[in-house]
Amino acid sequence: MTTNAPLGARAASHDEEPQLDANQSASPLLSENNIDEVLNAMTLEEKAKLLVGGANNFFGAGAVVGGEADLVAGAAGTSPAIPRLGIPATVLTDGPAGVRIDPIRKGTDKTYYATAFPIGSCLASTWNTELVSKVGEAIGNETKEYRCDVILGPGMNLHRNPLCGRNFEYYSEDPFLTGKIAAAYINGVQSQGVGVSAKHFAVNSQETDRTAVDERVSQRAARELYLRGFEIAVRESAPWTIMASYNQVNGQYSMGNYDLLTKILRNDWGYKGIVMTDWIGIREGLSTISEVHAGNDLMEPGQPAQVEEIIKGVKDGKLDIADVDRNVRRMLEYIVKTPSFNKYSASNAPDFKAHATITRQSAAEGIVMLKNNGALPWKEGDIKTVALFGENSYDFLSGGTGSGCVHPPYVVDMLEGLKNTGIISSPTLTDIYRKYIEYARVKFQAERHPAKWFQIEMMGQQKYPEIGLSPIAIGKEVQGADAAIITIGRQAGEGIDRDIDTEFNLIPEERALIMDVCNAFHQAGKPVIVIINSGSVIETASWSCYPDAILCAWQPGMEGGNSIADLLTGKVNPSGKLTMTWPIAATDHPSTNNFPGQMDDYTFRMMAGNRMPIPGHAYTNHEEDIYVGYRFFDTFNRNVAYPFGFGLSYTTFDYSKPIVKAKGSTIEVSIIVRNSGSVSGKEVAQVYVTAPKGRIEKPVQELKAFAKTRELQPGESQTLTMTIPVRDLASFDESGSQWITEAGIYTFRIGASSRDIRATTELNIKEYTEKTTDALAPQQKLSLLHQ
Ligand code: BGC
């Protein structure tokens, strides 16, 4: 258990504190080589100030500590400047799918739009770390050219349940894939000389009551699942910053959680960067003092009272000056790396053309083909006119809502994407849908709940309810079109989880649209393609038999319509694979009973500055423990709509017999993948490992490596060689606070999805153990599902 206030804290000796004199020129100016000297020269007030964010959009201008609020309009926050010591403010901007700043500023006609790149679930579905790094480089470049120092991403929480509102920002239900994709993104961004903030650390897999809920989780599930992606990212990409989440983990807010922020993050993993809070300022039930002590270096967005609290804490002996100095040193080490410190002259003019190409390519590689009965790809000249149904065909969703939205200069919708390839769409439908969208926009804004901030257009594109079209109107479209496309759109985002009936499932209008369009077009022998324009999983099992092909396009960024057209026309062969299971019903996930947690009678919350009893979800028990996603569905043999790792191609691939060798502390797996079809394409080979029966119960298989081929021509082969550290096969053994790979025969199952295993082989492995700190013990006994 950790305490809120540090024990044995000593008050600062004020005799030792530097005194400011009139002659300020004597102050050392910060450089890479004089961090100790600057630290020694800082007054307690300056130290406290440096640990508290300097600007915010949340608490009004009066709360700005350093006056840096307007450095970059619309950026989420800053770290404060201390000019006396040559310490500049640094600017933190959301993320993760591009730079979120205000596109329009007062007093200038110049615009500040940013490229909307594919959202997290689309990016991860590429399973292409090289490509993700390129996207990271482009995002890093825009961050820097828009005068920011840190992009607040990647979002790395797990898809524990398909209803989490922010799943679109996150990568996967699997921590290994999450960690690898995140490390690629981070290395890409940071190669540009700007930083990331890997978020939200940790166990933040729901939006409902996210600022209060206690995520109760076993130490094992925490280490193996919820923390594992972050561990990989820390070890493989050294993020400059990490953002502590709003929620509690086992009874302690992440932001003030010494076990999480110091014992695990720094002592076990060797993290050297800074930790910042998520954007809450002073929070109910947690002192800034305990946040500083826990290892939280920067309070965002920052309130003056927090500076005062730190100063008073030190003076009263409640906060050890050593903790303050430790955090200040880390802040200085961060600051000297930033473009702001290095006086980078930002152009405010990123290369949109080059970045449009990157987003178009990466989206095309992240789109997953779920079904194809041969209707795709369209051969040149086959399809000249298309009937485009669904309001999102004309108002395509490039990304989600909330802090993860981006303001792009344009969004290519389906209409335009098809037009760019020379395919014409029905003018009648275009007219109907455009008029409807105009009307729906006005109505939506007039009726929106004033408290629902995420429903304003500045917080992302909105989704308007689908309209019904009569079978007669649909029938009229058949003659003039060679094919039909139906776009099913879903919007979700920060602050609210998704609803099963209207957001996971199809609504009656959508169901009728699919049935009526399929009936009418199939009668005339014409194909129907469904495009899913959603950041997260939706229900498909009840209708997927009707259309000829289904593409899950996610929210693929501002070039979305072009990326989809590239796939429809076969210019690009689909190679995206699902990074999460698509269940038959949302409730098939074992987290259902505990999502979004248990209601308390009431919990005290801050509302409009007052402490009020508000009913809320007090805690979420992770009863499913380590059985999240395919770990559950595959171990307990449950039917799914589409399994983890699934995705179709226009070609086929053969897998050779794999070779698995022990090489010191690692295992090398190699396999030859051959394109056995008639068009070129890429394949993702996935390595699942089944452990021998031992002392610790394990899922039937877990993803331990993957590799994507280059574009293989028909008949061409590539040898994929993947390295798995023996450590990565370990389970977390709570009783010994250690990682343990039990000795025995391990089976390596290599395939095209978790349920399409093409080749297996075995290897005898010796025991491996690694001690960790004993951290994050649950405060209550958790009743776990499968024990
Ligand atoms: C979100 C973060 C975001 C921050 C700054 C918070 O509400 O949870 O993901 O980076 O706001 O906008």
List keywords for this structure.
30 strands, alpha/beta, disordered N terminus, six-stranded mixed sheet, globular, binds beta-D-glucopyranose, 26% helix, 787 residues
In a nutshell, what does this entry contain?
26% of the residues lie in helices and 19% in strands.
Number of helices: 19
Please give the number of β-strands: 30
Amount of helix: 25-40%
C-alpha geometry: globular
DSSP strand (E) fraction? Answer: 15-25%
Distinct small molecules bound, one entry per kind: beta-D-glucopyranose
Q: What is the strand arrangement across the widest sheet?
A: 1-2-3-4-6-9
**Spatial separation of the terminal alpha carbons:** 25 Å
- Radius of gyration equals 26 Å
What does this structure look like?
By secondary structure, the protein is an alpha/beta fold. 26% of the residues lie in helices and 19% in strands. The protein has a 6-stranded mixed β-sheet. It is globular, with a radius of gyration of 26 Å. The model is unreliable at 1-15 and 56-67 (pLDDT under 50). It binds beta-D-glucopyranose. Beta-D-glucopyranose is lined by residues 76, 94, 152, 199, 278-279, 403, 494.
